[in-house]
Write a structure and sequence with these properties.
By secondary structure, this protein is an alpha/beta fold. The protein has a single domain, classed as Rossmann fold (3-Layer(aba) Sandwich), CATH 3.40.50. It contains eleven helices and ten strands. An eight-stranded mixed beta sheet has the order 1-2-4-3-5-6-9-10, with helices on both faces. Strands 7-8 form a two-stranded antiparallel sheet. α2 crosses α3 and α6 crosses α7.
């Protein structure tokens, strides 16, 4: 399933690609993650379009959207989405966010609490960011006592260098295998995988977004390296935290941390036999959980 691509010009000079199934139903906004773009949601948009006006946007620097004003935090990406949503005539709706998109969604919900009726965090980054560490090159494991704290350290790290090399040399087969490794039961194949690889290659700000992940902290506490903005307290919507027990990108411990900070405001559901792409690994279970929460 594919959808017509449209473009929205922001007041700040960005041109954002977006897909909207209709404009006369309640809003459901889907927010993609890093190394990705809006089309990763197409198969799931189809599941919700009868009941919702489903919106998916290529965030700034991803997919077919521009990167005219570089940033290295997630807050401006949230501002972009708020402008798109209001510009399309919506005032509020439900939000589902994947991975890095979870951080963007939380920023949006903190900035515009009345805009968010329900928030679903799928394999989301943590409320205190995504910690990165030096690697032991012999065992290829992170040194948990040596966290990275600067963009320069990321630029020389295993989090950035191998992916940047694969993208720069257009190693499509290896990029595809890297993307497939995020899934346990149903790794993407065929044209969908090709589009996912294209999304990885289209990303214009890999280092900046890696640093955005590292320094993110929406809590009121210091995460060990960065003080928090304390904006989490502004989020009023009920939250559903969905995570795969075999997630090899965002550790399930971060889902537990998210639940801890949201407290009774959030439900936590850990999926068995699911990885970072749990919405595609376990689509029926994921859709059932989401629909039950939204309804």
């Amino acid at each position: 399933m594919t959808y017509n691509k449209n473009f929205f010009d922001t007041k700040g000079g960005e041109r954002l690609a977006y897909y909207l199934t209709s404009d006369d139903k309640p809003l459901l906004c889907l927010i993609h993650g890093n190394y990705s773009k809006a089309s990763v949601w197409f198969s799931l948009m189809e599941q919700f379009e009868d009941d919702y006006s489903v919106l998916a946007v290529d965030m700034r620097g991803y997919g077919d959207s521009s990167w005219n004003n570089p940033v290295d935090s997630l807050e401006p990406l949230a501002d972009d989405l708020i402008e798109v949503i209001k510009g399309l005539g919506f005032t509020h709706g439900d939000f589902i966010a994947w991975s890095l998109g979870g951080g963007v969604a939380m920023e949006l919900a903190a900035k515009e609490p009345d805009m968010v009726d329900h928030l679903v965090l799928t394999a989301s980054m943590g409320v205190q960011g995504y910690p990165m560490f030096e690697f032991d090159m012999e065992t290829m494991t992170p040194k948990l006592d040596k966290p990275l704290t600067t963009k320069e350290e990321i630029a020389a790290s295993m989090y950035y260098v191998p992916m940047k090399q694969l993208i720069d040399t257009e190693q499509d087969e290896l990029l595809g295998q890297t993307f497939q490794a995020m899934f346990v039961k149903h790794p993407p194949t065929g044209e969908f995988l090709d589009d996912c690889v294209l999304g990885m290659k289209q990303q214009q700000h890999l280092l900046d977004m890696d640093y955005a992940l590292l320094q993110y902290n929406i809590t009121g506490d210091n995460n060990g390296n960065f003080d928090g903005s304390d904006r989490l307290k502004n989020i009023t919507a009920p939250v559903l935290v969905l995570h795969g027990e075999n997630d090899n990108v965002v550790p399930p411990e971060l889902a537990q941390l998210n639940k801890q900070y949201f407290g009774d405001q959030a439900e936590l559901n850990i999926f068995e036999e699911a990885g970072h792409g749990l919405h595609l690994d376990q689509p029926e279970q994921w859709i059932e959980a989401v629909r039950s929460f939204l309804e």
